[in-house]
Specification:
mainly alpha, disordered C terminus, about 240 residues, membrane, single chain
Length: about 240
């Protein structure tokens, strides 16, 4: 990991309009949790539904998409990546640094608010808040690797990412069991399911299958980003 690249990337991400989205989305989750707590509508079923549908299925992929594509995509689009490519920095270090920044952003703006919302709604009951936080973290790492790779491979990374998150995982997932099982969301939910005894939480994928798949997707996305960045010449970046 390169500290200079990390610092510049953090400054870029937190200084743009993306920062407003990074703050707005988790704020909605926390506000919803407070409202449910105040109105007494925070039973275990409702709390699990909010954390799964809003936190894991909506907040996480959108934030990971913003972070994953934002840490490197704009630099490639406007040619600023050429200044990095001309330095004696291995491409894998560049990719791993960008990925690390994306993961930190997802942890700060998705995992922490999920923990806060879970504790507000259900407290420590069945360890559900911590379980969903863990699911968001592992899912966030996989999502970030995929979206960083998309940003390096395509200028339409945001559109492709939205299609995957909203169409494949959400729309098709409700009608096609196969599509539902082949999704980062369900693999992350499997980790959550393994960490809590709350009956409303149930994944369609076994933990023994979900963990290797999460690891494989993370490694594959990172490797693809490194390979593609190596093939990106300074001339093409200009």
């Amino acid at each position: 990991m390169n500290p200079t690249i990390a610092m510049i990337t953090f400054r870029s991400m937190l200084g743009r309009r993306r920062a407003l989205l990074l703050l707005a989305l988790p704020a909605l989750l926390v506000v919803l949790a407070v409202a449910l707590r105040v109105t007494g509508s925070n039973d275990l079923d409702v709390s699990a539904g909010v954390l799964q549908r809003f936190g894991l299925a909506t907040l996480l992929p959108l934030l990971a998409l913003i972070a994953g594509t934002g840490v490197i995509g704009p630099e490639i689009d406007d040619g600023q990546i050429m200044y990095v490519l001309t330095k004696p920095i291995p491409r894998q270090v560049v990719v791993l640094t960008k990925l690390a920044v994306a993961v930190v952003l997802v942890a700060a703006f998705a995992a922490v608010p999920t923990l806060m919302a879970g504790l507000l709604m259900s407290g420590t009951t069945e360890g559900m808040a911590v379980a969903f936080t863990a699911g968001v973290l592992v899912g966030g790492i996989a999502y970030s690797a995929v979206f960083v790779a998309l940003a390096v491979v395509s200028r339409n990374a945001v559109t492709i990412g939205l299609l995957y998150a909203l169409v494949w995982e959400t729309l098709l997932g409700n009608f096609a069991p196969g599509a539902k099982s082949a999704s980062i969301q369900q693999w992350a939910l499997s980790v959550t399911d393994a960490l809590t005894g709350a009956s409303p939480v149930a994944s369609t994928v076994d933990l023994a299958v979900a963990v290797p798949l999460l690891l494989a997707v993370t490694l594959a996305g990172t490797a693809l980003a490194v390979v593609r960045l190596r093939s990106l010449s300074v001339a093409s970046a200009e």
